């Protein structure tokens, strides 16, 4: 009996001696992987911080740009108002100029009449001076009768009175026209001054408008640079997440842990607790927030804030944080190069963390409108080997 026990003990001893190095190897491998994972997490945190900083700067630039745009709209309105005022002033100037021309014409005609009457009166005075009162006496004494005498006297009075009336009328016309000319000229000076002031205002407003355009152009350029930086950081974060997922797979292999992935093709689970309308498809479109053309990388499903977002398939969470235009975002790795991404999650609405194993239909987040979003909805992506593909065939 002892002889049989001894070989068994020796066999167990040898097996144990062989198992210890294997266990040490596995431990050494997982330690190295854990160190690499720690380093990756640090790099992800740094990249995430850079992305957050870039996003904060983008938000600040957006705010400044919006304010500059509002200021510019106000300036444009002021310029338009000034232009209307200038148009009215130009019309007034034209009217005054026409009045001046008409008044000048009337003045010239009045002066002509006065000069004509003056010539007539001067001729008569000259004749009277040369002939004295004989001319009047001749006129009177040459009467053929008393009645003719009276008629001649009245005719002479009428002629003299008429000359006096015409002279007074012409004098009055001349004074009125001269006064009107003076008043019109004063009005013209005033209108021209208003025109000059308004023109100066327009020049000032145009200068400000130009300055605003330059500022907006500068902000737009800065915005594009920051968006490029943020986009590069997002790519880096995604790459780090991929590396982390690969290391987790190696760690499971080293420890012979069961894989969380069971997807081998077929239909994915619907990512919301209830069917929702498709508000934007997997197409080229104009971004409703930035106004720029883009390839929409997923589909948008309209749903109220807080609606449960469900994992489309079994998998491991490889990202759960803020990501540029996506806002709060979760990415789940389902194995075989298949990822699903859930974007615009509400604040405090991410219910999982990196490394969590989730099951199909499990609640992982809540619908929101963070990031580049105009309303509550879920942005859902399917990525094959990190390349976005149309999610609809996976949901049918």
TrEMBL record:
- Keyword field: Coiled coil, Signal
> For the region Disordered, what residue ranges are annotated?
44-67
Record InterPro entries: Cell_wall_metabolism_enzyme (IPR050570), Dup_hybrid_motif (IPR011055), M23ase_b-sheet_dom (IPR016047), PcsB_CC (IPR057309)
Q: Which residues form the M23ase beta-sheet core domain?
A: 295-391
Please indicate if the UniProt record lists Signal as a keyword: yes
Question: Record keywords: Coiled coil included?
Answer: yes
Sections of the chain in a coiled coil:
167-253
- Which residues does the UniProt record annotate as the domain Peptidoglycan hydrolase PcsB coiled-coil? 112-180
Q: What CDD domains does the entry give?
A: M23_peptidase (cd12797)
Pfam families reported for this sequence: CC_PcsB (PF24568), Peptidase_M23 (PF01551)
Question: Which SUPFAM superfamilies does the UniProt entry name for this protein?
Answer: Duplicated hybrid motif, Tropomyosin
Signal peptide positions on this chain: 1-26
Recorded protein name is Peptidoglycan DD-metalloendopeptidase family protein
């Amino acid at each position: 009996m002892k002889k049989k026990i001894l070989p068994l003990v020796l066999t167990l001893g040898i097996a144990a001696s062989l198992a210890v190095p294997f266990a040490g190897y596995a431990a050494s491998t997982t330690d190295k992987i854990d160190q690499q994972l720690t380093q990756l997490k640090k790099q992800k945190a740094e990249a995430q911080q850079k992305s957050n900083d870039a996003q904060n700067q983008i938000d600040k630039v957006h705010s400044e740009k919006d304010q500059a745009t509002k200021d510019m709209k106000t300036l444009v309105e002021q310029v338009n108002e000034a232009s209307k005022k200038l148009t009215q002033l130009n019309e007034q100037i034209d009217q005054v100029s026409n009045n001046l021309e008409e008044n000048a014409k009337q003045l010239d005609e009045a002066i002509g009449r006065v000069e004509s009457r003056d010539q007539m009166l001067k001729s008569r005075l000259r004749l009277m001076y040369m002939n004295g009162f004989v001319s009047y006496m001749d006129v009177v004494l040459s009467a053929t009768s008393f009645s003719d005498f009276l008629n001649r006297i009245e005719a002479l009075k009428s002629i003299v009175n008429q000359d006096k009336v015409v002279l007074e009328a012409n004098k009055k016309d001349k004074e009125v026209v001269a006064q009107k000319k003076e008043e019109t000229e004063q009005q013209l000076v005033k209108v021209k001054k208003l025109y000059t002031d308004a023109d100066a205002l327009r020049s000032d407003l145009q200068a400000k408008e130009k300055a605003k355009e330059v500022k907006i152009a500068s902000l737009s350029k800065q915005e594009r640079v920051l968006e490029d930086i943020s986009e590069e950081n997002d790519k880096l974060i995604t790459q780090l997440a991929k590396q982390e997922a690969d290391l987790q797979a190696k760690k499971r292999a080293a420890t012979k842990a069961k894989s969380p992935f069971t997807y081998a093709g077929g239909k994915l689970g619907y990512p919301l607790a209830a069917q929702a309308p498709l508000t934007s498809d997997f197409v080229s479109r104009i971004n409703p927030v930035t106004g720029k053309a883009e390839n929409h990388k997923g589909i948008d499903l309209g749903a109220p804030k807080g609606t449960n977002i469900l994992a489309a398939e079994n998998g491991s969470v490889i990202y759960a944080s803020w990501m540029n235009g996506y806002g709060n975002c979760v990415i789940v790795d389902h194995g075989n190069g298949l990822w699903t991404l859930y974007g615009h999650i509400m604040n405090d609405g991410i219910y999982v963390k990196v490394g969590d194993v989730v099951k199909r239909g499990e609640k992982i987040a809540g619908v929101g409108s963070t990031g580049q979003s105009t309303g509550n909805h879920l942005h859902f992506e399917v990525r094959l080997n990190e390349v976005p593909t149309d999610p609809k065939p996976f949901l049918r």
